[in-house]
Design brief:
Radius of gyration: 23 Å
Length: 301
């Protein structure tokens, strides 16, 4: 099995502040990430975390690397795992600097996607691994002729977005998977509760004052009883709720990838839009919303 050295540069995500760089020269750290021993260099300007590791790779991956010199849509699992280990090592070091050296200028999503990714065999020439493009996909509500009239009809009737949609759209703007996941789950809970109250104002006190049932019950029996249908997205809602509980109640947390969060965001968006469709069955805009979704995730999780 060939032994290759992999190097990746991850931009350190910072907001503008008066903080001076924490170091005056490059600092080197060593951490274990996944199966790899990763060396991380933090240069003086703190622009990038440069992660490097050696690994034995399969003959198939070696051949893939040699043949890929232009562009790719995705990585083989073995290579994606290498990059994930480098990402994990760099992230661990930058987060240590953030929290232990008290650097609130470093954002919650401490590092961005790899800006470049290289491999070297022995003392040979450093070669670039093509980086898949970041994937942004969306399917927004579209209108036939008279669409503005449909919107005006909703405005005239006082139809308003659900408060939960605000949290959902905040999750769309969030880059850190942990906080994104929590906001998505908050959005799901607020959306179904507000929809129930709008449809049946007489149960407002019960919804607001009684202990809240789990999301799986809210989107199943309770939703079917009061809105006419249970959610077709119960499996995703159940997984999302369980993961959110682990994030909030386990100190060691749980590892979530960008692609997992993007899938959860898509399903939650559809689930909330489905609720909205049941809430306003006579409004053409609401009827077109369930097929709309928004998600964004890097091609490499």
């Amino acid at each position: 099995m060939p032994t290759l050295r992999f190097t990746a540069h991850f931009p350190i995500q910072k907001r503008k502040s008066s903080f001076a760089p924490a170091v005056q020269a490059s600092e080197y750290y060593h951490v274990t990430s996944g199966p790899l021993h990763v060396a991380v260099d933090i240069p003086a300007d703190e622009s990038y975390a440069v992660a490097q590791a050696e690994a034995n790779v399969s003959a198939d991956l070696h051949a893939w690397l040699v043949s890929r010199t232009v562009s790719v849509n995705s990585y083989p699992p073995e290579l994606a795992g290498m990059l994930a280990s480098l990402d994990g090592g760099a992230r661990r070091v930058v987060e240590a600097i953030k929290y232990f050296l008290i650097r609130p200028d470093i954002l919650d999503n401490a590092i961005g996607m790899a800006a470049n990714f290289t491999w070297t065999e022995g003392d040979g020439e450093e070669k670039f691994v093509p980086i898949p493009p970041e994937t942004w996909t969306s399917a927004m509500v579209t209108f036939s002729s008279g669409g503005s009239a449909a919107m005006q009809d909703g405005l005239d009737k006082g139809y308003r977005p659900l408060i939960g949609m605000r949290h959902l759209f905040r999750a769309m703007q969030e880059a850190e998977p942990r906080f994104r996941w929590i906001d998505i789950t908050i959005a799901l809970e607020l959306a179904i509760k507000e929809a129930l109250i709008r449809k049946h104002p007489e149960i407002e006190l019960l919804v607001l004052e009684m202990p809240s049932p789990p999301l799986t019950k809210l989107y199943d029996k309770i939703m079917k009883h009061y809105l006419g249908e249970k959610s077709p997205y119960l499996a995703a809602i159940k997984t999302g709720m369980e993961t959110r509980n682990k994030l909030l109640h386990r100190p060691d947390g749980v590892l979530i990838t960008g692609s997992q969060t993007a899938d959860y965001l898509r399903d939650a968006h559809r689930a909330i839009n489905h609720v909205f469709k049941l809430l306003y069955p006579e409004w053409s805009v609401a009827q077109g919303m369930e097929s709309a979704f928004y998600t964004n995730a890097g091609a490499v999780a």
